[in-house]
Specification:
Strand content: over 45%
Number of helices: 2
Order of helices and strands: HHEEEEEEEEEEE
Strand order of the largest sheet: 1-3-4-6-7-8-9-11
Radius of gyration: 27 Å
Largest sheet: 8 strands, antiparallel, barrel
CATH architecture: Beta Barrel
Structural class: mainly beta
Shape: globular
Distance between the termini: 69 Å
Helix content: 10-25%
């Protein structure tokens, strides 16, 4: 009986010691990536979605043998906005400018340096490798609520 009781106590002590927290363990602090940080980088313009009066039209933005058009949002607030010609020779046209992120409205504003052309997008979804934007304003023209224009971008 004593052997059984001793064995039980020994196992119980071992189990309790095994479950105790490890005071020497170090945990890496989790660093949360902000939306502004996620925006930095090259974003390929993959798909455009137009919704008007219940009708949805989706357009693949890949020009046949060319790379995708893209935004390259740089950490210093500058941007390249590159489009490829649709004539098949893939000539690039770059609209250099600036970009800002408004955390309160969750919007991105882009302004071209050459002509001050400004666009404002609402961020609908964002992850480290994909983003869905809704166009709100195209160079001073507010997009009406009944018209929805979305851009799907991928890194």
């Amino acid at each position: 009986m004593k052997k059984i009781l001793f064995s039980f106590l020994a196992l119980s002590t071992l189990a309790i010691a095994s479950c105790s927290s490890d005071d020497n363990a170090t945990t890496e602090p989790k660093t949360e990536v902000t939306t502004s940080q996620m925006l930095v980088g090259k974003w390929n313009m993959v798909t455009e979605i137009f919704i008007y009066q219940g009708e949805t039209e989706t357009e693949d933005l890949k020009i046949e043998n060319c790379n995708y058009d893209f935004f390259d949002f740089k950490s210093n607030g500058t941007k390249d906005e590159v489009y490829h010609s649709e004539d098949g020779n893939c000539t690039e046209e770059n609209f250099v400018g600036t970009w800002t992120y408004n955390q309160t409205d969750n919007t991105i504003s882009t302004i071209d340096t050459e002509d001050n052309y400004k666009m404002i997008y609402k961020i609908i979804e964002i992850s480290s490798n994909s983003m869905k934007l809704r166009l709100l304003n195209d160079d001073g023209v507010v997009i009406p609520d009944e018209v929805e224009i979305y851009s799907i971008l991928e890194k």
